[in-house]
Amino acid sequence: METIYLWIALAPLIGSIIAGLFGRTIGRVGAQSVTIAGVALSFALALFVFKVHVLDGGAAFNGTVYTWLSSDLFTFNVGFLIDNLTSVMMVVVTGVSLMVHIYTIGYMAHDEELWPETSRARKGGYQRFFSYISLFTFSMLMLVMSNNFMQLFFGWEAVGLV
């Protein structure tokens, strides 16, 4: 199950990185496809986790995935706390984000036509937008799934920053 939790969080991040770094190469359709695929994968896995934890009464998971910083006085870990509330929130976050990603295809369809020819926003803005909303989804998932205050703080700040 720990691998599933990782994929729920990392799939939108992977889509965001691909759309952000290779957006001009893969184009508009590629950027929207890769980010929507990442969020859709997260949503499908979140539904599975919801079934296991809420519907089937599975035990809560509280575990460390990665030790980020360690010293004599303190240790900062990246970890997940997955219980009933977290399962519900993961479904809400990924479900709403998936709908926003899909809606954005039509909403941003004529975005490049609205910018002047010389504007930097005209080139790659669509791909960048998809990268940002996918990064926002990752940040929300880190906020919801965190098992410590430092990770929660970073997720909260990333949500505000994106």
Key words describing this protein structure:
globular, about 70% helix, single chain, two-stranded antiparallel ribbon, about 160 residues, mainly alpha
Q: Assign a percent range to the helix content.
A: over 70%
> How many structural units, i.e. domains?
1
Task: Give the overall shape, derived from the CA principal axes.
Answer: globular
What does the average pLDDT come to? 92
End-to-end distance = 29 Å
Percentage of residues in DSSP E strands: 5-15%
* Count, helices: 5
* Quantity of strands, as a count: 2
What's the helix-strand series?
HEEHHHH
Major sheet size, sense and barrel closure: 2 strands, antiparallel
Task: Describe the secondary structure blueprint for this structure.
Blueprint lengths: L1 H54 L5 E10 L4 E8 L1 H24 L3 H4 L10 H21 L3 H13 L1
Antiparallel strand pairs: 1-2
Helix pairs in contact: 1-2, 1-4, 2-4, 4-5
How would you sum up this structure, described in words?
- The chain has a two-stranded antiparallel ribbon.
- The longest helix has 54 residues, at 2-55.
- Strand 1 and strand 2 (75-82) form a beta hairpin.
- The protein is globular, with a radius of gyration of 17 Å.
- The mean pLDDT is 92.
- The chain has helices spanning 2-55, 84-107, 111-114, 125-145, 149-161; strands at residues 61-70, 75-82.
- The two termini are 29 Å apart.
- It has one domain (2-161).
- It has 162 residues and is mostly helical.
- Helix 2 (84-107) runs antiparallel to helix 4 (125-145).
